[in-house]
Every structure is written in C-alpha cells, then in structure tokens.
Amino acid sequence: MLLKSLLQPEIQAFIQSHLKGAINELALKKNPFPSLDYKLILNQIEAKNKAENKLPTWFKSENILYPSKVSIEQTSSEVTAAYKSNFVSGETLVDLTGGFGVDSFYFSKKIATVYHCEHQAELSEIVQHNFSQLGVNNITCVNGDGLDWLQKNNKTVDWIYIDPSRRHEVKGKVFLLADCEPNVPELVTAYWKFTNQILIKVAPILDITSAIRELEFVKEVRVVAYLNEVKELLFFLEKDWTGPITIHADSIAKDQQVETFSAIFGENVAMDCELPLTYLYEPNAAVLKSGVQNGLAKLHQLKKLHPHTHLFTSSELIDFPGRRFQITRIEEYSKAILKSMSGKKFNVATRNFPETVEEIRKKGKIKDGGDDYVFFVTLLNQKKAVLFTQKI
C-alpha cells in the first residue's frame, strides 16, 4: 500500500510538527519528501487534525494512517461509538459499512468476533493497519460487499450493523432510507437470512416516522445527542418483532453521563395548556427530535404554552432535561417592543412563530449575545408574545 510509505519516521515527525499550522501556507512550500506525493502528506495532517477531538484514541496513537478528511468527518465519534456498543452483545457482529472502523473498534469490546466490511480496498487496508496499531485482534477486515460475503460464507451472526450513507444525487434536506446506500428497506429481507438482530445508524436529519414505515420489525429507536446536539439515530430491529416500538431520548453530557427518557412511539399524550407562569422549560435536543416532549412534561406536571409551541411552564422550579429559565417579563408582540430592543443584546429564539430569528433580528436591529434570553412564541390564546427570561 502506497500510504505505508507515510509511516517513515521522518514523515511522521513532519506530520506531527505541522498539526497546528495553516495547511494552506504549508501547501505552498516545497515538498520536503520528493519521492512521495505531497498531497498525501497534507491530507494526513488535515485528517489527523479533524481526529483530535472526535477520535482521541486514534490521534494519540503512533503510526496511525488516515483516509480523506471527509471520511473522518463522516465517521462516528468515539463518544457515540462507545455509547452504541452498550446495546450489543454476543459472539459475532458484521459491520456491513465499515468505513474508518470506529464503530467496529468499540463493538469489538463487547462482541467476541467482529467482521469489518468495506468496499474501498485502500480504506480497508488502512483500517486493518490501524487496528493492528491499536492492539485489536478480534476484528477481521473484509474488502468487498458485506452481504456478498455473508452469502458466500453462509455466515450466521448475532448482529448486523449498517450505517447507510445518503446517495449524492438525492437533493433536499429530508431523505428516506431508500435514498441511501445500501438501500436497507430493499435488502432487509436478505439480511434476515443471516441474523435475528439488526442495528441501523442514520443521520439526525432523517425523519423517524418515515424510517419506521420503510423498515420492518423495529423494536427500539434511540435518538443520541452529545452536548445537546443530536448526532445519530439508532434503529434496533428484531426478527418477527410485533410489539410496540420504544423510543428513547438519550442525551450524553461532557462527562459521559447519560440522561434518558423513554416512551412508546406514536403514543398520544394530551397536554394541559396554560399562559406563561414563573418558569419556562425548553426540552433538550434529543427529547425534541424523538417527539416525547409531551410525555416528559406530563411526568413533571408541567403545562404547555400552546399545542404546537414546544415550551413548558410551571409556578415552581423543577429539575428538567433541558434548559430552564425564569420569566421576567411578558409582552405582546408589536413594533413598539421590537423598537425597545433595538441596539441591545439578546439571545433570541422562536417557537411556533411566523417569523424567523434572522427576520426578527433584522427588523428590530437586535444584537446577538448577552445574558437575556427572549422567546418569540404563540400562546394558547393564539396571541403572539415575547417572553423575556433569565437562564437558570
């Protein structure tokens, strides 16, 4: 493999010494290693930089090879890979979409034998080399199509793991699983010949309801957020499952502590609505994406501002998985209230409101930042209101 020439000590030292520099400036300098394509070296620097926070185990290890920086951007982070590995167990797992191997690495800590399947020969070699450097000896790297490999070997496994990627020709933000490669809805019947359990990871932008309609035997869905940003959706399929689907909102904090709220998918929770009281609550990102905010608020005996305004209120302060605010002032939305905010700093948010944050800022000449949080909302009486708050 050509990339193995990058493992020469002097090249590794060069890569390490230029991690903090400007890559554009470095690209203009003369290649200090004429026998090797300079672009390969520059890519190692860029990709390793991308890995520093996302993949610290790889970043800190010696003689690790990196694919393109795009591959690093698209791979799971160590935080989410470690988290999802908690939900698998058994003797064998096949990762049909191996990529850079981060998920396989963490699955190998919970599964006796992992098969990492990857179409790209060079990437498969890179991953195999890196696993050796990381001291992993229970992962077998397979260059080729994972389903073909299962069929040729007639291999039954405890788990099949799939991380389908969106096809480039698909336009727009919202997409379906059928718009991805591999096309899981089309292939799932074939997968069931080799396992009873399938785990599918997809991007947060995917519509959960649409994905459940496309799939079969969905048992659980997990919405995984890290530092209040949804990172991935996990669909757990169990062969012949006909029971209810449980959906979990999993929010991982910086210290790796996890806050979880679970509900039955599609369960309709009726909420009592109320005009704003003393305190305001905004559910965390995982809760909002999973759609379980009403059940969570009901559990905490909160009131909702409006059936379609996903903010909640109470007279007494409670613990809540999300942000909490004390309401200091409530105003009816008007030109006068915008004028009073002109030139001042506010953190602005909208919920169930006809104008965007950008439009409000522009119209009111409102600066960003400060300690005050202002919510532009629709209340239960259908009136548009401005809630001035302080974060607790």
TrEMBL record:
Gene Ontology BP term (one): methylation
Where in this chain does the record put each THUMP-like domain? 322-386
Q: What is this protein called?
A: Class I SAM-dependent methyltransferase
Q: Is DNA-binding one of the keywords?
A: no
**Per the database record, which ranges form the PG-1098 ferredoxin-like domain?**
279-321
Q: Does the keyword Isomerase apply?
A: no
Q: Which Pfam families match?
A: PG_1098_Fer, Thump_like
Q: Which domain of life is it from?
A: Bacteria
Entry keywords, A to Z: Methyltransferase, Transferase
- State the SUPFAM superfamilies in the record: S-adenosyl-L-methionine-dependent methyltransferases
Q: Which GO terms describe its molecular function?
A: methyltransferase activity
